[in-house]
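Researcher: Batch entry, complex prediction.
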Amino acid sequence: MPGTLKLDSTAGGNANGAPICKVALLGFGTVGSSVAKILVERRNTHLRLTHILNRNVARKKVDWLPADVVWTENIDDILASGADIVVEVMGGLQPTEDWIRRVLTSHKSVVTANKQLIAHCGPELIALAQQMQQQIEFGASVAGGVPVISGLHQGLAGDELFKIYGILNGTCNYILSQIEANGVPFATALREAQKLGFAEADPTDDIDGLDARAKLTILARVALHCDLPATSIVARSIAPIDAVDFENASQLGCTIRQISRAELKSGKLFAAVEPALVELNSPLARVEGSQNLVMATGLYGGETVFGGHGAGGHPTAVAVVSDILAIIRAEHAPNGEAGRPRHQSPTITSDFVTKHYLRFLVKDRPGIIASLASILAKSEINILSVLQKPNSSKSHLPLLITLEECPTSLVEQALKQINILDFMVQPCLHLPIL
Amino acid sequence: MPGTLKLDSTAGGNANGAPICKVALLGFGTVGSSVAKILVERRNTHLRLTHILNRNVARKKVDWLPADVVWTENIDDILASGADIVVEVMGGLQPTEDWIRRVLTSHKSVVTANKQLIAHCGPELIALAQQMQQQIEFGASVAGGVPVISGLHQGLAGDELFKIYGILNGTCNYILSQIEANGVPFATALREAQKLGFAEADPTDDIDGLDARAKLTILARVALHCDLPATSIVARSIAPIDAVDFENASQLGCTIRQISRAELKSGKLFAAVEPALVELNSPLARVEGSQNLVMATGLYGGETVFGGHGAGGHPTAVAVVSDILAIIRAEHAPNGEAGRPRHQSPTITSDFVTKHYLRFLVKDRPGIIASLASILAKSEINILSVLQKPNSSKSHLPLLITLEECPTSLVEQALKQINILDFMVQPCLHLPIL
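Model: Structure tokens for the complex:
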């Protein structure tokens, strides 16, 4: 039977009499060592860790793994091994992509936690896996231990999903929660997060939304059946957010979160990763610290929420091991892909129609609100509220304007005219209100 | 290849070239008609509804289904049909169980939304399905449209789950939310729920926790691998809860919900369905109206939350159609069950160790707190707080006592002595504080 995982039933088995499935591990960092831990600790397991590949094996070796696990620095050892499934948790685009191609071509299935790789070339790797009658699973690439990929792909397969909203980056959520809780400036919250290990030394990928964007790309494929390059999604940094924005948001019954969202509407895919105001009673507002949350909305089932630990060695390793078990359980599914909705490549836009939050810093003089209002009026944008803080500095006067629902592009065009006005101390901060 | 779903590739196919899977429907009530709706409305579908069984077909027939759908009142027509998968949404234990056995024996797979049936004889039906090399899926039997069964069974398969907490009954949650929001007595909230269709004319199964208990039985099997009869789980009614309990709970930073919980600890399964105090910042406290929520805790991945619409025709139908697609996708999985942890049948107890809430109604006289305190002290139960409402009636004085963490059985034994004291107007209301 071609395409079936050929498990070695001569190599003994576990207490349940199941054949043994041999697993090789590429990468022995935080996630890799957690995967190894679960594999050796699991009771009744029919999974056997046989190979570990890492740079500088001599320094990486640990004493809590069985002595017969083969350590190597050479991918050829993995390709030539009897491993049934190769787990990739080394990260990066190269040589990872080449290696995964070679693994699939050598008739082994793949489990990967690599969001950038799957966002970048997931469809090609899935096609190669199908061609080789192998499988590639990537449940750990989005939201770590939260089983959102399988939930969307299988649990909600009976629905027609059209909307995905998520908090997909724990670093940003931690930083924003800290600004909110302690009223500290962005830079302080970032430094604190770095000190505690919640943010990396170079936090660009997280802060600027590139990490979340890769995850949203994957979710848009799995849930909305839209193939799109990650770079086609607008990503905006959370760096301009400061304590004052949380005060303002709070007056509007909202808080601020980095929101990744994709929505199919009138044949277009609206998509963006950006800081946004969310109502306090939304599940998105209640996501604390480094937690992740995904809200999927379908035509028939309405809103479904998945939440939990989006990162960390152990939760991510749970997703990896669940994927290993899914490959063993499902074998190959020749009917599976054929029956799925055809993937589409719709026009991608970030031009969401929402309410808007505009935070200005101006040099006070008569007529400021009049000039702003007249520019907005010319674009047919309606003002919802204007809030001027009393007792503020005349030379750095904070001014808050919220706008009724209108296309984001309309606001951005008006802001181009506004940002060059002589009373503007800095460009206006513009956030959507969800 | 035995055991593979034999889809009819000669019967044409859909735009994707996938073979057609024929579906028969037992029951055309709210859920059944929603399933039919999704099957006929889905784009690119390779699912074809061929038969519908219901009593009194003449009255049930609708004009929005294709004319070639066969309507029948006779199960033999379904058994003799070419249907690949039979969907059971008629409910009840008999004749449903017999019919499902006959369907499996006639080499058809089954999808059911019937929680009582699966709680009652799920393991036997699964064994029969395996023996016949067919599948039985029951994702819709717990939490309707929330994909919690697949999430626990597959998405979190890599973890060792040991704890399940859930809000599994939308009727109870709706009633409790109404008491909380409007300060109305239980009876009023129930009547209102019945008027709006959120509670049935005979609400016993919901109110007394029997509905939630069946669901918890299924979750304990799927998540904790514990086989147990539903009747072994203690279920307590929400009927004694009144507005005053929400006031009291609020003073303790809590609200009250009907909580279904099962926890593996020291080789025992602690399980119960009962009203309980939950902290306001818990995801359980924030479940509104008829929503459902399940929190699963694992050794490695920590807490994962699944939430959404727990009932209703369309959400439940999404779970049914997702199960149909899962059967088609997965074919048979000979490795699947063998590799799973062995099911266990541990001792079942409801003797949770928690903090406790005791609400008394007493005839006021000196020495009441002293008598209560001395009985509790003799059982080595520590009091956490005592709250006496000022300006209350002397003959019906409300008194609230909270207790430090101790086994529930200890409190129940002390209450046996307390409930017969002469100053007790009614038996003490006793709730756990989670």
